Amino acid sequence: MDKDTLTQIEELLTDVQQDIDDPDTSYKLRTARQLLSIRKQRNKALDEATDEAISDEKILENLRDLGYL
Question: Which of 36, 38, 55, 66 is most buried when burial is the number of CB atoms within 10 A of its CB?
Fold first, then answer.
């Protein structure tokens, strides 16, 4: 299965967090995983915005070709 880099990092952090007993280290790993989750959400939003922009540009180009703009 092909996984993206952020998902692999999240899985590694989860595995390490389960293997440790130090609460401070566990807190830091949990925080890192939360930040990683935010990054994944932002990447998804950016990908969606990029897809919309490309689609809109194609529409504008078609309208220009047809002489509407």
Answer: 36
